[in-house]
Amino acid sequence: MNNNIPYIEMKNIRKVFGKVTANENVNLLVNGGEIHALLGENGAGKSTLMNMLSGVYTPDGGSIFIHGKEVNFSSPSDAIRAGVGMIYQHFKLVENMTAEENVMLGQKQGLFLSRKKVRQKIEDICKKFDLDVQIDKMVYDMSVGEKQVLEILKVLYRGADILILDEPTTVFTPQESEKLFKIMNKMKENGCAVIFITHKMDEVMSVSDKISVLRKGETAGTLNKTETSPVELAELMVGHSVDLFIKRTNYDMKKPVLEINNLRVLNEEGIEAIKGVNFTLNKGEILGVAGIANSGQKELCEAIAGIAKIKSGEVIFDGENLVGKNPRDIIKKGISMSFIPEDRLGMGLVGSMDMVDNLLLKSYHNQKGFIINKQPVIDSAKELKEKLQIKTPDIFYPIKNLSGGNIQKILLGRELQAGPQVLIMAYPVRGLDINTCYTIYDLVNEQKKKGVGVLFIGEDLDVLIQLCDRIMVVCDGTITGVVDAASVTKEKLGLLMSGNNIESEGTEIA
């Protein structure tokens, strides 16, 4: 094969969904032996572009060339046969099968393949790409990192030399991310083309060779990693300069506002998800919560907010135990606590309602009499739309038709308007553009200056370190440590996230 021929060439790609143009005149060129990062805000068209490359969608215009040959994929199997393997953020694995059985699934001979030949091929691939896979291990016993490696093994087994990784490190510890980057570099050494979709700028600068940026569905530019910077890339993504600095603020008169004592919480299946945790949140403090996915963060938030079932323990807010009180009881008692859930539309807002009615949901019970006066809420909606730059045709437009970022702004704005003493935030910037993320960090610091206690559940360790005063690490429903954010390293947080209790200066072990 001619080494000068690009592995991937996408020319003037266009894709339209109804009245929405997802991609317009997008050009992408990726060579073999190259890690090519794909950057862009939420809704910039990254996933749509990759879905066309992997055969999920068909372009409405433009051409795709693989190894110099024009292709017209009508299904993902066409793309797999051409050597394109897509590894999704949400894994496509069968939990109650072994690693080996998952690799064999979808092969023409199914489970009737020669096990000896399969194992030999798997061993050869693992050796070639330095993959650590226990082929007899059940998927449900695997960590997130092990599942990711298994997904990579699956596509390599099928002959892929072009790999697309979609936000692969979202719920990884730093140690798991490092292992993945070593595998990616091994793919590069073996001549593969790797496309890396991420929003983490430090990872882009660490592992990629070239970077393509999409903005509003179009190519904003392609740059060599060595000739650019995070500031330039952020500017390309949003179309104007962005201040990538989180200003840490101080609030001196700290005293406890929320105390959690020996709290045990059941999840929806009735299994104990929080296992006897103890911690204190102070006024004017941002307490970060770090942990791999499903470590109990969701149940902890919902227990404090009066939603999840508390098995035992205390939630002391302003001297009063909240256990046994539902959210309405908490509001009636005048206990102002705001909760921004992970599921924006499922729990936070009503999609079929407009902005005004969603704001009204939080405040109507405070009005006296039978007739609700909407005017103050209309005024609040207009103020929020302006302050948070919410993109909506008008304040009476159903919010389900808005982007995830704008929905999150409405939810956050509504909660802040309640004037909380404690603000619980679960993944508040997930899926938001860089500019909006930093606007929200500033809003959080504003609340801190007012003496509000903020419980900030996040997945970006760099943000937690820069924004928070302390970081509490949870693993499998327990607290493995509470550390000073100003002095902790990402590596130490990663070890705590993996369940390692490290007793050292600046670490409180719960």
From TrEMBL:
Gene3D superfamilies: P-loop containing nucleotide triphosphate hydrolases. Keywords: ATP-binding, Cell membrane, Hydrolase, Membrane, Nucleotide-binding, Repeat, Translocase, Transport. Residues 8-241, 258-501 form the ABC transporter domain. SMART domains: AAA. InterPro entries: AAA+_ATPase, ABC_carbohydrate_import_ATPase, ABC_transporter-like_ATP-bd, ABC_transporter-like_CS, P-loop_NTPase. It is found in: Cell membrane. It is a peripheral membrane protein. Pfam families: ABC_tran. GO terms for cellular component: plasma membrane. CDD domains: ABC_Carb_Monos_I, ABC_Carb_Monos_II. Its EC number is 3.6.3.17. This is Galactose/methyl galactoside import ATP-binding protein MglA. It is an enzyme of class 3 (hydrolase). GO terms for molecular function: ATP binding; ATP hydrolysis activity.
